[in-house]
Amino acid sequence: MIKYILGIECPICNKQLDNKIICNTCLKQIKFIPEKNHIASSNNFYFNKFYTLLEFNKTLKKIIHLYKFENKRKISLVLSEIIQTRYDLDFFKEYDFIVPIPLHDKKFKKRGFNQTIKILEQFIDQEHIFTDILKVKNTKQQSLLNSREERKANLKNIFEIPKSKIPIIKDKKILLFDDIFTTGATLNAIAKPFFYSLAKEVNVLTIGVSW
To answer: CATH number for the domain including 163?
Structure first.
């Protein structure tokens, strides 16, 4: 157990590490989506485009689980490096604000950190990270719901932008950031208040995609 805490072993396969967070063997099991399929138009969404990098295979699923639910916060360094292999800072500078997915206060207290903010903080200036959107209801975990209809109902009108912040959104280009794109229900719910605050454009970036 002490070896695991000190990071001597890979948290995915338990192979001995040499100054790494995840071993190269496990990292090679991560599969990038070809860039030609990387941008797609979104129908019936409040956002315009979505960008994603990786297939949500068994290895990525384990990495995300360890990061979010087992408090392996150093994995944020790995995930930020993966993002930067495809998107340099010029890509992010096209946007006025990068928006990490917010957590309800109860979930934040339980987890102790916001996983999307921690990733962005590795390479995005704090002034460009917009954290004022609020999750006003503590919902069920989306992955535990079976149908698209249940996911939509679970997220109906749960995100709000404070009235004092709405004027700074108008005519701005917004990039929402999350770990995994599944049905898009969570991201659509977050995009909605930006859409109605008259943002110039709302796009989405996720680390992985599962559909």
So the answer is: 3.40.50
Closest CA to 73 of 130, 119, 10: 119
- Are residues 10 and 97 both part of a single domain? no
Residue 89 C-beta-side C-alpha neighbours within 13 Å: 6
Q: Give, in order, the Cα–Cα distances in Å from 126 to each of 81, 123, 159.
A: 18, 9, 21
Domain co-membership, 39 together with 53: yes
**Crossing angle for the helix pair 58-69 and 75-86, to the nearest 10 degrees:** 130
Tell me if residue 108 falls in helix, strand or coil.
helix
| 43-64 pLDDT tens trace | 678 999 889 999 999 999 999 9
Q: Write out the residue range of the structural domain in which residue 167 sits.
A: 31-209
- Secondary structure E strands in 38-164: 39-41, 49-55, 97-100, 134-135, 159-160
Predicted structure pTM score:
0.86
Say yes or no: 36 and 93 in one domain: yes
d(CA 25, CA 12): 10
Say if residue 116's pLDDT is above 50.
yes
Kind and range of the H or E run holding 178: strand 173-181
d(C-alpha 191, C-alpha 196), whole Å? 9
The domain tally of the chain equals 2
HSE-CB for 15 with a 13 A CA cutoff: 13
Whether residue 138 has pLDDT greater than 70: no
